[in-house]
Design goal:
- With 414 residues, the protein is of the alpha/beta class.
- It has two domains: 2-59 and 372-410, Urease, subunit C, domain 1; 60-363, Alpha-Beta Barrel (TIM Barrel), CATH 3.20.20.
- It is 33% helix and 21% strand.
- Strands 3-2-1-4-15-16-17 form a seven-stranded mixed β-sheet, with no helix packed on it.
- It is globular.
- 51% of the residues are buried.
């Protein structure tokens, strides 16, 4: 019933840390007490987990990823692969995420994840806490419309929704299927662009929906107590997100200074997605990307970096997300790479940890349950060997994972 974890130092996820050796007492699946080592009176038969040479943190949270359940270098299989195979493949990747200390994640678009979330919640398969959007919502010819496939097939996916009543109906269908966040595509490439979902040039994005449609979608989602996440690249999409009441802005770059100031003034939440482009660059040669795709991804990551640095300096509030979609090119268990990337681009280690735990938990509407080491919160806790405030890369080598009060991985006391 009781466990106590002793550690070299605790990093709480809210920007604070312990001064020295620290202990966390857990009752069942919740944090019961915290304090300096030796300060907590132990109930009888408490299980002791002595991690005295390790650093303790809240579990990592990936605020934007995808369980597509097909090989990431063959996304065309989304059109033909059986859903049962896809959810089983996704379950395998979910376990790998949990084993690496990613204890919560938001799948921002995949038809299989409401059922995967249910299976995890019921204890049938191991995986992180999931917030699942289910299938994307996009307009005809919008962000993720499969333009090379027949329109009738695209309609059969349930992805496409047009007009005020159409987007309201789409939200209701997601609610019926078990989605607990809504994901809408708000920007896309132009008619002549080669890379339709993100566009060849982030400054030339086209809006996928009218502001009236966005407001209707958001209203319907909020009636169901669900947040709305918007794929937003380019100034118009981000402005529409702010005007339309979008709760979480994904990507959020190639924007004007006036829009950047609005993000700060309105305390908007933007989710980073650097890893997606980083891993595309890593995969470009071994997976034989076309030259035009290499150029497009290079253009996007350059602009993303420019805007991130400006937005960070101005005070835009970031959660950490990866946009990783699966093996082999975009392994979702590599989510901790995002912490390294944001530090390389200007965050302090402390800021990165807060963004990837506390703020990311808020992006998932789970801030009352996870995201910080705090009395009464769920016992999702990880341990690393090095001090992540000095070496952020240590988060990519998690040695101990406690999830919902149970030990998942213990490489320390093997």
């Amino acid at each position: 019933m009781y466990k106590i974890i002793h550690c070299k130092r605790a990093i709480f996820g809210d920007g604070k840390e312990s001064k020295g050796e620290y202990s966390v007492l857990i009752k069942n699946n919740k944090i019961e007490e915290l304090g300096d080592r030796g300060s907590i009176e132990l109930p009888p038969d408490t299980e002791v987990l002595d991690l005295k040479d390790y650093y303790l943190l809240p579990g990592l949270v990936d605020a934007h990823m995808h369980f597509f359940g097909v090989p990431s270098d063959q996304l065309h299989l989304l059109a033909t692969e059986d859903e049962s195979y896809r959810v089983l493949r996704a379950a395998g990747e979910a376990k790998k995420m949990l084993d690496c200390g990613i204890t919560a994640a938001s799948c921002k678009g995949s038809s299989v994840t409401p059922n995967l979330r249910r299976a995890i919640n019921e204890g049938h398969v191991p995986g992180p806490r999931l917030v699942a959007a289910g299938e994307f919502i996009c307009s005809t010819g919008g962000t993720w419309d499969h333009m090379t496939f027949p329109l009738d097939w695209a309609k059969d996916t349930g992805m496409l929704a047009d007009g005020i009543e159409g987007v309201r109906e789409a939200v209701r269908k997601r609610v019926r299927s078990g989605s607990n966040i809504i994901k809408v595509g708000m920007s896309k490439g132009g008619v002549e662009d080669k890379y339709h979902p993100w566009g060849d040039n982030p400054w030339n994005e086209v809006s996928s929906y009218s502001l009236e449609e966005i407001k209707a979608l958001v209203h319907e989602a909020h009636l169901n107590k669900l947040k709305v996440s918007g794929h937003c690249i380019g100034d118009e999409a981000v402005r529409y997100a702010l005007d339309g009441g979008i709760d979480v802005i994904e990507h959020g770059y190639a924007i004007s200074e006036a829009t950047r100031q609005r993000l700060v003034d309105e305390n908007a939440m933007v989710v980073t997605t650097i890893s997606q482009l980083h891993f595309h660059n890593e995969a470009a040669e071994p997976y034989h990307y076309h030259d035009y795709m290499k150029d497009i991804f290079h253009t996007h990551i350059q602009q993303m970096k420019i805007d991130f640095e400006k937005s960070l300096k101005l005070g835009v509030r970031y959660a950490l997300g990866t946009d990783l979609v699966g093996y082999p090119t975009h392994p979702p268990d590599a989510a901790a790479k995002e912490f390294e990337m944001v530090v390389d681009w200007g965050m302090t280690n402390t800021e990165a940890i807060v963004a990837g735990t506390k703020i990311s938990a808020e992006a998932l509407s789970l801030e009352k349950e996870i995201g910080t080491l705090e009395k009464g919160k769920l016992a999702d806790i990880i341990a690393v060997k090095d001090d992540p405030l000095n070496n952020i890369k240590t988060l990519q080598d998690v040695k101990f994972v406690l999830f919902d009060g149970d030990v998942v991985i213990d490489k320390i006391n093997q």
